[in-house]
Every structure is written in structure tokens, then in C-alpha cells.
Amino acid sequence: MIIEQSHFLFTALYIFSISIGGLLLNRKNIIILLISIELMLLAINLQFVIFSVYIDDIIGQICALLILTVAAAESAIGLALLVVYYRVKGTININKINLLHG
Amino acid sequence: MLLTLVLLPLLSTFTVFFIRFIGNKYAAFICTILLGLTFFFSLKSFYYIALMQNPCYMQTLPWFLNENLTIFWGFLFDSVTCVMLIVITSISFLVHLYSIEYMGGDPHLGRFMSYLSFFTFFMLILVTGDNLVQMFVGWEGVGLCSYLLINFFYNRIQANKAALKAMIMNRIGDFGLSLGIMLIFFLCKSVDYHVVFSSIPFLIENSLYFFNIKVNLITCICLLLFIGAVGKSAQMGLHTWLPDAMEGPTPVSALIHAATMVTAGVFLIIRCSFLFEFSDTALDILTIVGALTAFFAATTGLLQNDAKRVIAYSTCSQLGYMVFVCGVSGYSASLFHLANHAFFKALLFLTAGSLIHGMQDEQDFRKMGGLSKLLPYSYSMFLIGSLSLAGFPFLTGFYSKDMILELTFSSYLFKGTFAYTLGVISAFFTAFYSFRLIYWAFLAKPNGYRYSYEHASESKFFIVAPLAILSLASIFVGYIFRDMFLGVGTSFWNNAIFVLPENNLILESEFIPTFNKLTPVFFSLLGSFTAFIIYNFLLKKIFTLNFVFIKIYTFLNKRWYFDKIYNEFIAIYLVKMGYSITFKLIDRGLLEMFGPVGIINKFLKLSRNLSNIQSGLIYHYLFVMLMGLIIFLSLIMGQIQNYIFISANILLIFVVLVFNFLV
């Protein structure tokens, strides 16, 4: 079986869709939310790398590196917020984060 | 002299501003003196203008100067005006004199006098105006003063209601009159009497299409003017205010509701004889309505128990006489009756006031009785007034009333016979109720409270003197002025009244059968004797009469149920309609729901729904983001494929959004 570009892209798309599903359907835990976001960034990274290889252009890989750092920073900040939130509320349940409703 | 005559009562009105400096008593005397001067001037003008046949016409200041509509403050003094002047100023002067004593105990005497003078001023404007608009000023002014005077005791609810009723009933008539004036302007392009009356003979063919029905314009004008006269002169239909207006003080009843204001309608008809003569339809309606009024009011007056109310219905009945004789073109007889009636009706009212005053303000004559010994002066005055009213031979009323009946008989038309018959029957009833009143008040056994009899006394000079003067007038005026007013070929009117040659009945009326000439007198005498006999000898029998009699009694005592019908079948429904349709349905319903309240409610609900979208839950926000992305993408895809598909899609999305978020 010849592995084509589309197979790689579909893999990335599936990962992205699963992560969206994780964001939408998860009703309990903020950590799963953060993990899903990481997964989304991962899928995007994968796409960048695939396109970089197939187009034969280094810029995609540069972007992938950049996104890696952004993702790391983001998850650091996210986890920090999570800790602060847990310190205040004593829980990390998403259903309880609706104090700012209209 | 002539303008002074008109403006003196206005000057007299202004005393009201100085009451606090000069006091009520002096204000009253000043008013009376000024009115006396007015009376003197009007006598003088009567001599110079009416007797010397020297009509005077002047235009003073301009009022409206538009392109086509030029109205001046103009004054026209001719025979008709001068007769009215004499009537108004003499009665007004005597009533002023009378009020000094009668209202002497009232803390607002000055205000009362001022109102009386103000009324006189407007009445003078009404009769002296040389155009219809100025006449209308006076017309409305006397309506206003009528309101103020009926409502003089403003803390009495009945007086308030009566005043409102008088104002509103008059206003219905004024509506017709103002329409009539507008039509006259439409037809003649002027409202000045001289222009209108001289151009009318050339305009008799003009007609108007109203609801696709062709109406002769002059008939239309005359009928509208007549509606005004119906309102002011209390003809059948709009008469209910007149008896209620008896809530005002007695001098007011004497001045306004007997002698002057109610005759304004008749004056209007007489003044507009130039118009009425050219419309046979209007004349027919005048005759029939007038005759019905005379009959209706006479029967109603039969069984009223309030002294003033009886006299009020008598006024109404006599106004009917004046109107129906106008309908057979007997304008001069109408004016003659107007003048005579003013004197004897003022006498009757003022005497009734004296009687009421003497009996501790008791108005119900069933609680009087036996006063001929206690109040002989009032008795004799009342007798003179009643005899004159009933048309006792050779008193004032006889000359005009019999002339009216002769004139109507000599018109060989159905309407003449109709009016004659009803007039004669009314004459019978008139005599009957006059003598019923006299019997109950003066001749019957005492029925009142002992206290009243202990304190019953004749009044002082200022009440007695006007009665004496009016009684002399009630006896002699008719005899003295008969030939001048009604003589065959009299030149007194001097073009002030116009009668078409084919309508002129003065000569015929002299040659009607003797039987028909004597009938009214006979019926009057019969009426007075019947009243005396019934109430003197058959009183016990009357109270044991049967069911039918009670029905008739109630019918007449409740004034033919006119008030009941107006209240329960018209007024209530109008008020209900005003509340449920105009107020509840339109104002508070449609206009508010499509207006401010509806918009406010809608936006409140909308914003509540929109803010509910912000649930605060993260996955909801994510869902909205995702859905937005999907919808946006699908729209773009759709647009690429097919335009119609996309617009249907947008529509669907829009509907779903609206349905979810807005409702």
C-alpha cells in the first residue's frame, strides 16, 4: 500500500476532529479541555510538517517549531490558571464555571 | 349713543374687578345704574330709529380682513333690533334692580351682577351685529353667561350638572348654526346681512349634492340655522336644558330663560326671514316643530310640581308659538309675542322668586297654599302675569297670542291647521297649569310648614318695584303697540322683516270666521275654570282615579320621558362607546400596542433572550463558534454551487435563529 499525502492529511484531520469533539462533548474536566487543545495544536503541527515535506519548503517546519513553543507556553499558562482556579473554587468541574452568565 | 348703549353693560361687567375696593352693595348699585342708563339709551334709540323710521348702520373696526372674507365689527340698528333692545335692556335693568334685594344676602352679589351685565352685553352684541359672525359671538357669549349663571351656586352638584347640560345642549345647536353660517359664506361669499339678504333671491336655484341627494342650498342653510334656533330656543328635541336651568337663581331664570336668551333663536329666525321666505320646506318644518313644542311643553307643564319648572315649561310652550308663527311667515307677530312674552314671563318668574323668597326658599307649590292672604301683592302680580299668559282678553298676551293663532288658521295649508289645532289645545293647557299653580300656591288650604307661614312676608322695595313696572307692561304693552307691530299695512318694520307677497297673511287673518277667532279665548277661559273647579271641588276624586290616570300622570310628570330616553338610550351608550372603543380599544389598545408599550415589551423580551444565550458555559461558546464556522462554510459552498439554494438556506437559518433567540 502506497502511503499518499492525503492519508497523512486525513490523519491530521481526524486528530483535529477528535480534539474538537473532546472540547465540545467534555462536560467534566478542564484538564481534558487542555489536553484537547494540545491535541488540536498537534494536528496542526502535523499538517504543517506534511505540507513542508510535500511542498519541499522549510517554512512549514519553522512554523511547526514556533507552534510547539506557543503550545508549550499556552499549556503552562493554562495549567497555571487551572491551579489558581482550583485554589479559589476547590474544583475543576467545567459545569461550575458559569458565574459570568448573562 | 348707539355704541355707548352696547358698551355700557361691558363697563358694568368690569365692576367685578373693583368689588374688593368698593364692596358688593356699591358694585350692585353701580351695575344697576349703568343698566338703567342703557335702558334709557335704548328707549331713546327706539324713538329715533324705530318710531322715526331712521335705521342706522355703521361699520367700526375691521376684524377679519382676508381676501374674500371681510368682517367688520358692524352695528345694525333697525326696527327688529330696537324692539329687541327695549326688551333686553328693560328686563335686564329690572332684574338688576330686583337682584339687589333678592340676592342681597349672597356673599357674591357683585360677581352675580357682573355676570348679569356680561350677559346683557353679549345679548346686545347678538341683536345689534350687522353680520352673522358677530351675531355668533353674541350667541356663544350668552351661552357662556348662561353656564356661569346657572352654575352661580357652584357648590351645588345639581347646579353644576344643569349648567353642563345647558352648555352641551346649546352646543349641539351651535354646531348647526356654525355650519349654516359657513354654508351662507359658501353661497354668498359674505356674512354681512345686507349682502346675504340682498343676494339670496338670485341664488334660490343653487343646490348641493349630499350623499348623492340633491338638496336646495337655501333649504339646507335654513334648516341648519333652525337647528341653532332649536338649541337656543328650547324647541322639542333640544329642550331638556331649559327646565333644568331652573337650578340657577330666580333672577337668572327671569332674565335668561324667560325673556332674553331663549328668544335669541326666535330672533335669529326673524332676522333671517329673508332666507326662510325662500324655502317652503324649512317653513313647514318650522311650523310643525314649533307646534309640537307648544303642545308638548304645555302638556308637560300641566303636572309639574315645582313652581319654577311650570313657568319654564310655559316658556318652552310660548317659544313654540313664536316659532310656528314664523313658519307661516308671521314674523312680526312672532316678534310681538316675543316682546310681550318677555314682559309677562319676567313678571311671572320674578313673582315666583318673591313667593319663594317669602316662603323660606320653598319651591314646591304643593307645600304653599293659602298665600293670598299673606302675600296679597305677589298674588295680584302672579294673577296679572298668568292672565296675560293665558291670553285673557285685552291683556298683553291676548293681542299677540290670538294674532298668532289667527295667522296660523288663515294659512290655508295643512301645516296651518295643524299648528292652529295644537296651538288652541296648548292655550287650554296653558290656562290650566297657570291656574293650577295659582290655586295651589294662593287659594288652597295651607299645606306648608308652620315656620314658613310665621315668617312669610312681602319683600322690600327693590323686589316690589320691578314687579309693579312689569305688571303695568303686562297689562298695557299689547294694547299700546298692537297697531304699530301688527296693524294692516304698518310701516313700522321698514324692511327689517321680509315676507313674500304670496306668504303674507296679515290681511287674511282679519277675515277668518268669528268662531275661529273666539275659539282660543274660549279655550283659555275654559282651561282656567277647569283648573279651578278640578282643584277646588274634585280634588279627592282625582287622588282615587284609576291606573290609566296614574300612567298618564307619570308620563307627563316625567316630561314625556325625554330625559330618560336621552340618558339611557343616547348618553349612556355614547359614554360607554367612548370608554370601550375610543379609550380601551384604540387609545390603550391599538395605538399603545403598536406604539410605545408594544415596542418596550418586545425589546425587553428580545434582550432577555439574547442575554440568555450567554450561558457562561464554555462548551456552549465553543458550540456557537463551531456552528458559526460550519454555517459560514456551508454558505460559501452553497454560493459556489447555486444562488437559489443559498438564499433558501439563508432564509432557513434566519428563521431558525429568529425562532430560537427572539421568541
Automatic annotation (TrEMBL), chain A:
GO MF: oxidoreductase activity, acting on NAD(P)H
Keyword Transport: yes
InterPro entries per the UniProt record, alphabetical: NADH_UbQ_OxRdtase_chain4L/K, NUOK/Mnh_C1-like
Residue intervals passing through the bilayer: 6-25, 32-52, 58-86
One BP term from GO: ATP synthesis coupled electron transport
Keywords: Membrane, Mitochondrion, NAD, Translocase, Transmembrane, Transmembrane helix, Transport
Superkingdom per UniProt: Eukaryota
Membrane topology of the entry: Multi-pass membrane protein
GO CC, any one term: NADH dehydrogenase complex
PANTHER family, A to Z: NADH DEHYDROGENASE SUBUNIT 4L-RELATED, NADH-UBIQUINONE OXIDOREDUCTASE SUBUNIT ND4L
Membership in a protein family: Belongs to the complex I subunit 4L family.
Name under which the protein is recorded: NADH dehydrogenase subunit 4L
Organism: Cyanophora biloba
Lineage: Eukaryota, Glaucocystophyceae, Cyanophorales, Cyanophoraceae, Cyanophora
TrEMBL record, chain B:
EC numbers on record: 7.1.1.2
InterPro entries tied to this protein: NADH_DH_su5_C (IPR010934), NADHpl_OxRdtase_5_subgr (IPR018393), ND/Mrp_TM (IPR001750), NU5C-like (IPR003945), Proton_antipo_N (IPR001516)
Catalytic activity: a ubiquinone + NADH + 5 H(+)(in) = a ubiquinol + NAD(+) + 4 H(+)(out)
Keyword Membrane (UniProt): yes
Domain NADH:quinone oxidoreductase/Mrp antiporter transmembrane: 130-426
Domain NADH-Ubiquinone oxidoreductase (complex I) chain 5 N-terminal: 63-113
Broad class of where this protein is predominantly found: mitochondrion
One matching Pfam family: Proton_antipo_N
GO biological process, one term: electron transport coupled proton transport
Cellular compartments annotated: Mitochondrion inner membrane
UniProt KW keywords: Electron transport, Membrane, Mitochondrion, Mitochondrion inner membrane, NAD, Respiratory chain, Translocase, Transmembrane, Transmembrane helix, Transport, Ubiquinone
Cellular component GO terms held in the UniProt record: mitochondrial inner membrane
GO terms assigned for molecular function: NADH dehydrogenase (ubiquinone) activity; NADH dehydrogenase activity
Domain NADH dehydrogenase subunit 5 C-terminal as annotated: residue spans: 433-635
Transmembrane segments: 6-22, 29-51, 71-100, 112-129, 135-154, 175-196, 208-231, 252-276, 282-303, 310-332, 338-356, 377-398, 418-440, 461-481, 521-539, 617-637, 643-662
Top EC category: translocase
Membrane topology recorded in Swiss-Prot or TrEMBL: Multi-pass membrane protein
Its job: Core subunit of the mitochondrial membrane respiratory chain NADH dehydrogenase (Complex I) which catalyzes electron transfer from NADH through the respiratory chain, using ubiquinone as an electron acceptor. Essential for the catalytic activity and assembly of complex I.
Membership in a protein family: Belongs to the complex I subunit 5 family.
Protein name as it appears in the record: NADH-ubiquinone oxidoreductase chain 5
Annotated organism of origin: Cyanophora biloba
Classification lineage: Eukaryota, Glaucocystophyceae, Cyanophorales, Cyanophoraceae, Cyanophora
